[in-house]
Amino acid sequence: xxxxxxASHESSSLRRLETDRFDLTDREIIRLVENSFxxxxxxxxxxxxxxxxxxxxxxxxxxxxxxxxxxEGGDIDSDREAAGVVICDAVFGLNLLTFxxxxxxxxxxxxxxxxxxxxxxxxxxxxxxxxxLKKRDGNGSAKCLGCVRFMLSQQREVDEQGTLGDxxxxxxxxxxxxxxxxxxxxxSTLRKRAYxxxxxxxxxYVMWRFHGWCDAHLQSAVHGLPNKSNG
Length: 231
Hints:
By secondary structure, this protein is of the alpha+beta class. Helix content is 27%, strand content 24%. Strands 1, 2, 3, 4, 5, 6, 7 and 8 form an eight-stranded antiparallel sheet that branches.
């Protein structure tokens, strides 16, 4: 089944943060996490990540040369990015991936809290729509072809020092995403190997880098928040 070809799941523990400042039940912390995850398309197009090969543009202005840059501090310009982001190559401006509006959710439990952000994949040369799928629904909205899911979870148990549990960041490809390089079903062994040895490897490397960026960015951002335990 093609969905198994595109399966991806990366997980890593974040470095220990000051636990009196990092609590996933805190609305300000939740906002920081959501904004970090929503920065992914623009981070991906950053010079330090893809060496200027990619450009990120507002989905409503994809035909213009205006580029989106990562805002200092990782904040999101919600007015410009509300509709989504198009990832293009820097030379020809070809649409490689189109991300729709990010979808955020938070689950606050007694033993575990989790913040999730889904970036819907709406199209692009790296994607393949299922046979017979209409590109738009009855309302004229583009249909989602799967998503890239980001999750940050924290165990709620408190140890003898009053420390909350470790933080774990996870990313996965979810839904019906079909990589164009693998082609339509049935997927041949050759195409499957081609995907697993190229796009899949690059994706794993990029996510490893993004996990590290989130770790460093969140630590820096949290240190700038007031220490609520000190009033």
